[in-house]
Amino acid sequence: MPEFFHRKLERSAIGFVLAIIGVSAIGGMVEIAPLFTIDETVEEAPDMRVYTPLELAGRNIYTREGCYACHSQMIRTLRDEVERYGPYSLAVESQYDRPMLWGSKRTGPDLARLGGKYSDAWHVAHLVNPRDVVPESVMPRYGWLQRNTLRIDDLPRHLKAMQRLGVPYTDEMVESAAADAMGQAAPDSGFAAGVAGRYGEETNIRAFDGEPGRLTEMDALVAYLQILGRLTDAAHATDAVETGSTQDE
Amino acid sequence: MALEKHDPVTGQTTTGHEWNGIEELDTPIPRVALFFLVTTALFALGYWILMPAWPLGVTYTRGLLGFDQREVVTRQVETAAAERAGWADRVMALDYAGVQADPELMRIVGETGHALFGDNCAVCHGTDGRGSRGFPDLTAGAWLWGGEPETIHETIRVGINSGHDETRMSQMMAFGRDGVLEREQVRAVAAYVRSLSQPEALAGDARIEEGRQIFAENCASCHGEDATGMVETGAPNLTDDVWIYGGDAQSVYASIHGGRQGHMPHWEGRLKPLDLKILALYVHGLGGGR
Question: What is the dihedral of CA B186, B190, B192, B198, to 10 degrees?
Fold first, then answer.
């Protein structure tokens, strides 16, 4: 019987290990490596802004409470999703998400276009007890968010970590992170002007949980939920449902 | 390799390995597995040629079919819109009375409106439109900003106290907290306001007369002399039995003490003009219209 190539390979321990590594690297080379070399994988969005410290704190709470286990943040290129939720998600919209929270399961609805869809008061009522506003909901309660004071002393270090990962926070943003977090939820305080100055006039600055005097985890989470899908308008440029269409079930 | 050995029972060749007199058969993998292996490999080859597949430095192989998910979904949505154009164009072209006069169009508006309402409005106003505390009941016929389809459309389009440039704006002062009224005065006006809709329950309450005067001086400019509300200011009718924040003594006291400023998001930009029109008709239908 002739010696086939594979039979030879099997008998060389080092050669076989190298072959296994080579074959298992194909997936990464095809799916990951091109993201660094092919420009069109991430769109251009000059208006893309970073998360404010309060929104970043809210994002950390979103991760801590495991919201991603039941809610996705990714509208796929499918007709029913585009018609229900809005324009499909672009890669650039997750540019400053470290890590991304696209999720893979929808027990609740997708949240990628949630920002501005409902009022702050609704978010607070819904998080305290979802059944109060949506009787058929199966979402757990998160009432303690309203009682827990938000920890802000570590926010500069959170921003610093993001900065090291390539998120374009300036050193000034890092230094004033704690003050900016307070200011964003207290529109009448002296800290509010700095937030608008550093993060743009479009930034939501208001008492998210309805109590301007106290900075709670509820403030942070609602601030984060109200910015979802609104860091850039890039996705709306591709809006497929521009021409007088309606939604179907 | 040395001489091939055959197993005497099966006739199969052996690997030449032997353990305690037992020799290992060199059975080839079943044909069917080989068949699937070859088929999937051929499928992959075809896929690589037809579909976007391999990265090539700064570009990639685009495939002969020129497939692009984003183009596909854009086309699907356009096709769906074209399918609906038959009735959608008529809904857009007609005025509200015209659409309402057409039972066939109203049937479609009812079906499409129900889906739109469920996706966008139901979390606050309830699947049945009955709302909950702080979120108005749309079936009660108590319209803050007017109950005609045109005014409902405008409310949906610009929202209330929303971020829209033309937003409807309404704020009830915090009469107690801001020190405009004393605690007893707030109690009195609360009693008067409650007596308007529940005259039996509050009959003989001594504070009502004082409350009537305080109301005339402080509240009538928005709620009207007769407390039936004003659509111009979005001030609710206080003489009916419909309450957004509750009609018990404590709730009415809390509203007068701390003021109220409801917030409804604006939907222009998020929903298409046709969707807004359908929703206006649907919501108008929920409340029995006016």
Answer: -170
